[in-house]
Structure formats: C-alpha cells, structure tokens
C-alpha cells in the first residue's frame, strides 16, 4: 500500500521527486492536462482543474495504461489512508472506473460523495485502455481535502494482478504491485472556464472547441452518480451555512412546521454528525477531534487542516457547526448593552426586548465554567496566579455568566458551551432537534454560490450539487424565503455574486468568466454597504512564567502523545484536563477618558502555555507565528509559561471593510484594528495596568515583552496582522444592510442570520450574543407576514 512515510519526506523536500508533472495535450480529446508518464509501466496520469474559484470541488483526470496493466489508480492527495482514491481497469472493451476510500491500510471500498462521469474519449483499443473522467465533489472528503492551488505530491499505483471480478465495479482487489509519487504544480493546472466547461461536458479542443455528439456515460461505481436532470424540489426556507446562525434558524423554522433545506459547503464535524477524524488514542470511543475540548489548540497545528475554509484568508470554519466546531467555545451570556440602540441595534431589539431570546438560548444551551463531568477543575494554576494579580488591582472574583452585566473589574473561571465534557454548542443541541424532523433536510459538501432572483424576488439558490436540483439549482416554494448564514465573510460573497453590494465589488464579479454572466442585469443591482462597518477585537499577547504553572507542554502533545493519565481519564468518562479548551480565566475592565470620552472595555483571557496562534493570527500570517512557537518549544525548560491575551471589546471605534479579490476570495480590504486613533491608547493602558503589580505575585516574570522593552515599544512594534481574534462582525450590519427583521434591504424574501448582522462587537467572544441574535431574528422572520 502507499507509503505514508515516503510521501511525507518527499512532500517536505519538494525537490526530491523523480518526476515533475508537465503540460501535455491528449490528442484524442484536446484536453490540456498536467501529468506524467511513469517510465517503468508507461502509464500516464493527468489532471486539469477549473479556474481557481470559491466553491469549486471538481477536476478532470485521466489514466492511460498499456493493455497489459491489470489495473491502475491515483491518489490526487498523495496518500492512501483517508484520501480519495481513483482506479480503473479494462473489462473487455469497457473501462471500469471507480472511486474508493480506505480509513487504514486495508481494502479500499467504494465511497459515496464523489460524482464520477466518464468522458467520451474513455476507450479500450488493441494497445491501451484510457479512462477520462470528470470528478465532482472530489476535492473535499471525509477527513481531508485537496489543495488545487499549490505544489502537491500526487501518488499513482499500478498492478499486474487483475482485480477479483473485472465485471464488478465494486470488486475487491489485491494490493498494488508498484506505486510512486511525483511533483505537480496544481496551481498551474487550471484551464479557462470556457475550456474546462466544454471538456467537462464531453467537448474537445481548446478555447471553447467543438462539442462531440457522443454522449457521456456516468459510472455507478458508488451510490452517487451525476444525473443531468434531477427534478427540482422546492422548499419553504433555504438556509445557507450550518454555523451557529444557520443551525438555530433552521431548527426554529422546522419546529414551526416549515419545509427547510440547510446547505453546508463543508463536511461533518463531531461524531454525532458523521465526523470520524480523531487522534489514535481516541479511536473506538465515538469521539473526533471536534468533540474533545482539549484538542482545541491542535486546530492550528495539524498537518491536515481540512476544516478551514481554504479560500478565506482569515480563520473560518468550513464544516458542520462552522466556527463553533473549531473554536475555543468561550460562551458569554450577552450584557443588556450588547443589544441597545446606542450600539446600533433597532429599538425593537433594545430595552429588554431581547431578553426573551437570551433566555431561550440558555434553556437550550446552558453555560458551564467546570466542563469536566466530575465537576472538578483541572490545570487551574493560571487562574490562581492571574487571580492574585487582579485582586491587587481591585477586581472581584465572580461566576461570570451569573451576572452578565458586571464587566468592570470582574474576573472568573472561563465559561463554555461544552456539554457532558464534549463540544456541545448548536451542533449538539439545535441541530439534533432539527434532524429529528421529517420537514428538515441538510445537504453537506454543498456550496451555494448565489441566489437567483427576479428583481427583488428571490426564486432559489444556485449550488454546485447537481444531485439536489437541475444543475444544482434549488427553487423556493411560493412565498418561500432564503436565509444566508454563511458567516461574516461567506454571506457578503453570496450577496456580491447575487448582484447586491457596492458597485466596486459587483464590478469584480461581472468580470468573472463564470459568475459574471450569472449576475442579474445591472439595472437590478442593489447598492448596499455590504462589507463595511466590520469589527474584530484587536488582541495582544503577554507571556509570563511563574514557578507554580504547568504549561501543559504548550498543548503540543495532546494529539499524538497526551499524558497517559489524562487521556485515560478523558476516555473513561469525559473528565479531566482534556474536557476543557485551553483558557482558564477571563476578566474585564472598563476604560473611559484615555484620549476621548468613549467607554471601552478590555477583556483578558489567560491560558497555560505559549499563546496559541488562534487568538492572534490571520490564516496567512501563521507561518511567522510557527517560527515563534518553534523557538518557544525549543526552550522546553520553560514549562511554567502562560499567556494573557488582552482584547479591546465593547466601545471599540475602529471599523474595517471586507470584500473579494479577482478570484472572488473574501478577505479584509481594510483591517479593522486600530483604524481609529482612539483604540490603541486604551489597549496600551490596559496592558500596563495588567502588569502594574507583577511584583506582588511571587516568582511572576513577564518574558514577552521582556525587560528590554517598554510596553509602548511593544504595542508599537506589534505586528498588526497578528491582531486577529477571529471575531468578525458587521459586514451586513442591521439597519445598514438588513432591516430590523434581518431582511436584506431592497429584496422581498432574502434574509441574513449570522455574525455579519451584528453592528458592533459584543462584550465577550461573540458566539453567545450571536446565538441569541439568531433566536431573535428567526422569530422576527416567522412573525413576518407574507411568508410560506
Ligand atoms: C479559531 C476561532 C476561534 C474562535 N473562538 C471563539 C470562542 O472561543 N468564543 C466565541 O464566542 N467565538 C469564537 N470564535 C468566533 C465564532 O466561532 C464565530 O463568531 C461564529 O462561529 C460565527 O458564526 P456564523 O454563524 O456567523 O458563521 P460561521 O460559524 O462562520 O458559519 C458559517 C457556515 O457557513 C458555511 N458556508 C460558508 N459559505 C458557504 C456557502 N457559500 N455555501 C454553503 N455553506 C457555506 C461554512 O462552511 C460554515 O459552516 C472563534 C472563531 C474562530 C475561527
């Protein structure tokens, strides 16, 4: 079977490949592939991809083998286990092509999900057999994904021993007799949209070339096949995005008896949702990476990060649960000020009108500051050291969620929405009730590009999933409604691709060869400030040591080699250190009059170990941080290290802007940290205050910044690109893009329920306030006249 170790070494060295893919044109079909012909067996393997574009999950591939080859196969991802495998053989004059999957070095079995369509140039002649196939839903699979825009190391396999039953597409077969790897710059292997679409439809030649009259055949190797005409199924509500906003919306709508479709571009997460990605030590216990709270820090250090949206430049979760399946799960009951007219919310949401929805959320999802199932707290040295520090500054030690409005000089144990020692959140609660109803349907691995509209009326949603509607189109029932819940980056992109937003963004879409032609006529473009008014907490880390601290190996061993007593305890009854994410203590303090009269709050989060990249890093800036982490870990004697992350929260006045680039990838156009001159002095003052009485705690030393640098110099030099807290809000702000019923202004039946509607940051990490906002928003939608 494929050698994982060999592959890893090759992938790391990059230059160690015996062969590197080059461009070639297959004379039979005119398709320009990137691939190789292996010099021993003379089998050709090639791939070509559509233009780099958000949501594309397909490619065209071919295997051309001498007739003597009993079977041949490929792993575009380069590994055998937990990867999409494609293989073929000749059965008489027919080529049998199938996709397989193996969760270990065992017999790969047929795998549902990919849609394989044989293209017309597939053939057998006297010397060769050739399999040319279109592979849809093929770049993301259970536990992995294919980066089609990078230099990669695909693998090939060859066998001189026939499969067990060549006439059976689902046949077993013996281990291959040879295998190899090569280097391929997939980022160069993207065709124009015109060429790719032509080839994918069975056409030949380039630049749009001629379409053959031969029909394509779709294989039935697995349960999924591409069917050109799937009957449209209309829904009352189509919700796009299974993050917290979308899950709560879909649950409440289905509870009200509406026929609901929830679309999610990613795959499963927790065990309950069908996820299976877990560390070796947790195998056999119905647990995944996404279930075990103590694996939170490994979200950022795994070699196989399929859960991030790979087309968004900041961290965003692209899997069932969205951010709540990968986040630290810090869960704060909103303050009354979080929903006030002073902070941009409508009066119908303010002055206590929102309290009902906070209560509804808490009933479904209570918070806990002692998530271990035995009720004990573990690894609490940081709480006690930072508590001592804050006591000296006049702070009170409280149970934070018992008194949400007490946020000035208050600290307490970190609170979470973990349930029974596992990740809880909306996935373990609201999604479960939704899934118990026959009027609710969820489709995963389904990317929604845009809504289809006639002027102000939305007719349906365009997706890439041809199994759920003709060409992936899903219509609405009469008076039906669409709710966008694709997150602060995802929902703006869908709006732009639907002709809604500022003209500079819509101009970018109109220049795109695939999505430009699908835009509504310019007269129907709706000009709204989508992407403006964006906030995220600027955050700065301070790193300390103190002799009593257990840094827990910087969380570096929890995946591969956890402390045996801790993993055993967790597996036994979900108790102990691993029943909690890394944070241990949170605190807040109000500041006014530092340079202006705005009241701003500082939030602190303290955790054992060196600061995790999650709180401080954009997706793109991680490499820089890795070098820091490596240096810290090299000093493994610093086993008494801990971090305080200080965030500026309520009252922040800086705003940024989110948009798309020419490849339609969402990203910050203007970073929202320290845009306004009033914010930076407050965080600087807050940092100085945190360390104002360091000497009062025995053995406490600050190492970043150390004593060679003033706090002013530290803040001044702090890399702005590492200030991201992953708490993005505001890109579809209420009363600016959506009205008080979260309806997109200028439309009849398009709504948004996600973090993008929040006009400013709440007091704490945002998903608590977002979930109560989702409860409120969906209640408003249900109460709105004229719906289905
Ligand atoms: C690393 C990290 C740590 C965090 N830590 C915390 C924390 O400890 N506490 C806290 O309160 N908050 C935290 N957050 C923030 C919190 O998770 C988010 O505020 C919250 O998840 C936002 O919810 P949402 O519904 O707006 O969108 P998301 O959670 O982003 O969900 C959007 C969903 O839509 C899907 N989607 C996107 N585009 C499409 C499309 N075109 N078609 C179909 N599906 C689509 C995505 O795959 C995703 O599942 C953290 C976030 C991150 C990334």
From TrEMBL:
Biased composition, class Low complexity, residue ranges: 209-227
Keywords, sorted A to Z: FAD, Flavoprotein, Signal
Region (Disordered): 203-227
Signal peptide (residue range): 1-18
A Pfam family matched in the record: CDH-cyt
Listed InterPro entries: Cellobiose_DH-like_cyt (IPR015920), FAD/NAD-bd_sf (IPR036188), GMC_Oxidoreductase_CD (IPR053208), GMC_OxRdtase_N (IPR000172), GMC_OxRtase_C (IPR007867)
The keyword S-adenosyl-L-methionine belongs to this UniProt entry's keyword annotation: no
Span of domain Glucose-methanol-choline oxidoreductase N-terminal: 317-340, 487-501
CC cofactor: FAD
UniProt record similarity statement: Belongs to the GMC oxidoreductase family.
Protein name per the record: Cellobiose dehydrogenase
Organism per entry: Lentinula lateritia
């Amino acid at each position: 079977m494929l050698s994982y170790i060999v592959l890893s070494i090759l992938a790391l060295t990059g230059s160690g490949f015996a062969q590197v893919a080059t461009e070639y044109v297959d004379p039979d079909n005119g398709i320009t592939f990137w691939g190789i012909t292996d010099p021993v067996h003379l089998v050709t393997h090639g791939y070509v991809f559509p233009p780099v574009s958000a949501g594309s999950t397909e490619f065209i591939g071919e295997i051309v083998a001498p007739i003597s080859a009993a079977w041949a196969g490929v792993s575009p991802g380069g590994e055998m286990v937990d990867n999409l495998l494609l293989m073929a053989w000749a059965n008489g004059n027919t080529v049998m092509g199938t996709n397989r999957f193996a969760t270990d070095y065992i017999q790969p079995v047929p795998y549902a999900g990919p849609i394989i369509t044989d293209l017309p140039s597939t053939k057998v002649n006297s010397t060769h057999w050739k399999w040319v196939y279109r592979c849809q839903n093929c770049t993301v699979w259970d536990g992995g994904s294919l980066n089609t825009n990078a230099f990669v190391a695909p693998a090939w396999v060859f066998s001189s021993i026939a499969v067990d039953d060549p006439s059976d597409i689902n046949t077993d077969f013996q281990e291959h007799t040879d295998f190899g790897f090569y280097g391929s710059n997939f980022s160069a292997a993207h065709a124009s949209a015109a060429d790719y679409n032509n080839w994918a439809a069975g056409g030949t030649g380039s630049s749009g070339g001629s379409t053959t009259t031969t029909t394509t055949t779709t294989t039935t190797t697995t349960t999924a096949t591409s069917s050109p005409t799937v009957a449209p199924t209309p829904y009352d509500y189509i919700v796009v995005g299974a993050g917290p906003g979308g899950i709560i919306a879909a649950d409440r709508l289905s509870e009200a008896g509406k026929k609901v479709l929830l679309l999610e571009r990613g795959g499963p997460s927790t065990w309950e949702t069908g996820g299976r990605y877990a560390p070796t030590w947790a195998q056999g216990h119905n647990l995944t990476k996404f279930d075990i709270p103590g694996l939170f820090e490994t979200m950022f250090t795994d070699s196989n990060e399929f859960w991030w949206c790979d087309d968004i430049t900041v961290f965003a979760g692209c899997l069932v649960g969205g951010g709540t399946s990968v986040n630290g799960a810090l869960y704060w009951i909103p303050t009354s000020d979080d929903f006030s007219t002073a902070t941009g919310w409508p009066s119908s949401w303010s002055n206590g009108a929102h309290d009902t929805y906070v209560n509804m959320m808490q009933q479904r999802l209570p918070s806990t500051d002692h998530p271990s199932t035995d009720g004990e707290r573990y690894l609490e040295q940081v709480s006690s050291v930072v508590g001592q520090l804050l006591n000296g500054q006049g702070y009170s030690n409280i149970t934070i969620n018992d008194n949400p409005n007490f946020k000035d000089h208050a600290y307490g144990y970190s609170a979470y929405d973990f349930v029974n020692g596992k990740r809880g959140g909306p996935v373990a609660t609201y999604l479960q009730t939704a899934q118990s109803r026959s009027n609710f349907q969820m489709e995963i691995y389904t990317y929604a590009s845009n809504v289809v509209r006639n002027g102000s009326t939305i007719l349906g949603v365009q997706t890439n999933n041809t199994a759920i509607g003709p060409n992936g189109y899903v219509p609405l029932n009469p008076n039906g409604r669409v709710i966008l819940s694709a997150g602060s980056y995802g929902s703006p992109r869908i709006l732009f691709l639907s002709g809604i937003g500022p003209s500079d963004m819509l101009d970018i879409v109109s220049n795109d060869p695939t999505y430009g032609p699908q835009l509504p006529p310019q007269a129907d473009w709706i000009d709204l400030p989508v992407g403006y008014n964006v906030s995220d907490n600027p955050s700065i880390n301070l790193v300390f040591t103190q002799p009593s601290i257990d840094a827990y190996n910087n969380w570096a061993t929890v995946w591969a080699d956890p402390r045996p007593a801790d993993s055993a305890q967790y597996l036994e009854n979900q108790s102990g250190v691993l029943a909690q994410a890394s944070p241990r203590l949170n605190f807040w303090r109000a500041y006014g009059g530092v340079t202006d009269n705005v009241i701003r709050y500082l939030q602190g989060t303290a955790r054992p170990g060196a600061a995790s990249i999650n709180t401080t890093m954009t997706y793109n800036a991680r490499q820089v941080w890795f070098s820091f982490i490596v240096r810290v870990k090299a000093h493994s004697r610093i086993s008494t290290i801990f971090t305080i992350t200080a965030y500026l929260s309520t009252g922040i006045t800086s705003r940024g802007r989110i948009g798309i680039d020419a490849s339609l990838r969402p990203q910050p156009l203007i970073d929202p940290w320290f845009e306004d001159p009033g914010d930076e002095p407050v965080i600087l003052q807050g940092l100085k205050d945190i360390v104002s009485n360091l000497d009062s705690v025995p053995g406490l030393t600050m190492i970043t910044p150390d004593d060679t640098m003033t706090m002013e110099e530290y803040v001044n030099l702090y890399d702005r690109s590492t200030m991201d807290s992953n708490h993005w809000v505001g890109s579809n702000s209420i009363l600016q893009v959506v009205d008080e019923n979260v309806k997109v202004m200028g439309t009849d039946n398009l709504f948004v329920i996600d973090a993008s509607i929040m006009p400013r940051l709440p007091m704490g990490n945002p998903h608590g306030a977002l979930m109560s906002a989702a409860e409120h928003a969906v209640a408003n939608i249900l109460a709105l006249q004229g719906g289905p």
